């Protein structure tokens, strides 16, 4: 079986700093891969590389067996969609217009397709519990509402590979679960999902496999129960915590050992 994505030896350098360092992994059809790692570890850079927003310094990315950069832009937009949330603000658009941009990323817009595209946009928003935002001004939405709309835009592109950079940031627990449930079902329908997350429990509970980056290198990869551990929290995140697994679901209970900051350490901010 041809893997959906094969990342082999990808290195990204920005000036003198190596941000991704020889990253190797693959993702199969129907899988949800969670990309974890501390701030600045390279998660967004990895997703941007697969989305072709940046061209890696070295290494290769194969998408359905073909080098990512061999696809034309139009071909690629039919295969890979990406939610990389640095939406340029400053211009006014309705929510549905943003979601429709997802539809139009994959096909030229003809007037007779408009009705079908509106149905696609509505379904994407509906799945994310955001249909009530349909006619709202995007720039007046809350951060969480904006995030849901950008996810809907990505889903509306209807690609086989979906990349999402921190899709559940800003979302309340109900909507975090809703997004992850939608991604799981899309994976069951045969799509391949790569999602970066800071929510370790959620990543563990919903992803088939996890990949952990630290300073641009993969430091752990595999099934959630083999990846999320007290050692990982200590060595990668610098956090002392107890990790408990209970029942047959994959949600760990992560109990941090609280570390108070002594009052004497706060000098100027008093
Ligand atoms: N265009 C750029 N030029 C220079 N350095 C960059 C550029 N883009 C990212 N970096 C640096 O690369 C490193 C990795 O950034 P990246 O955004 O991939 O991290 P991340 O894992 O997504 O972090 P976070 O969890 O905070 O989103 C950071 O140190 C960042 O400052
Ligand atoms: Mg990031």
TrEMBL record:
InterPro entries: AAA+_ATPase (IPR003593), ABC_transporter-like_ATP-bd (IPR003439), ABC_transporter-like_CS (IPR017871), P-loop_NTPase (IPR027417). GO terms for molecular function: ATP binding; ATP hydrolysis activity. SMART domains: AAA. Transmembrane segments: none annotated. Residues 5-240 form the ABC transporter domain. PROSITE patterns: ABC_TRANSPORTER_1 (PS00211), ABC_TRANSPORTER_2 (PS50893). SUPFAM superfamilies: P-loop containing nucleoside triphosphate hydrolases (SSF52540). Keywords: ATP-binding, Nucleotide-binding, Translocase, Transport. This is Histidinol phosphatase. It comes from Thermoproteota archaeon. The lineage of its organism: Archaea, Thermoproteota.
């Amino acid at each position: 079986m041809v893997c959906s994505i094969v990342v082999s030896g990808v290195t990204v350098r920005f000036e003198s700093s190596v941000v991704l360092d020889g990253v190797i992994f693959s993702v199969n059809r129907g899988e949800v891969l969670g990309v974890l790692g501390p701030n600045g570890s390279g998660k967004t850079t990895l997703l941007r590389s697969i989305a072709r927003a940046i061209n890696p310094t070295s290494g290769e990315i194969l998408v359905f067996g073909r080098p990512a950069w061999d696809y034309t832009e139009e071909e690629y937009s039919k295969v890979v969609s990406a939610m990389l949330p640095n939406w340029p603000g400053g211009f006014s658009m309705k929510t549905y217009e943003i979601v429709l941009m997802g539809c139009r990323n994959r096909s030229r817009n003809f007037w007779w397709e408009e009705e079908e595209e509106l149905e696609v946009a509505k379904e994407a928003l509906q799945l994310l519990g955001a249909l009530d935002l349909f006619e709202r001004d995007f720039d007046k939405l809350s951060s969480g509402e904006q995030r849901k709309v950008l996810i809907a835009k990505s889903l509306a592109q209807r690609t086989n590979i979906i990349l999402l950079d921190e899709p559940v940031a800003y979302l309340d627990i109900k909507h975090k679960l809703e997004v992850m449930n939608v991604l799981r079902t899309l994976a069951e329908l045969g799509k391949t999902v790569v999602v970066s997350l800071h929510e370790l429990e959620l990543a563990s509970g919903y992803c088939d496999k996890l990949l952990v980056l630290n300073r641009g290198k993969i430091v752990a990869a595999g099934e959630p129960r083999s990846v999320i551990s007290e050692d990982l929290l200590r060595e990668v995140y610098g956090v002392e915590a107890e990790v408990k697994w209970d029942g047959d679901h994959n949600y760990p209970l992560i109990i941090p050992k609280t570390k108070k900051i002594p009052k004497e350490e706060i000098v100027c901010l008093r």
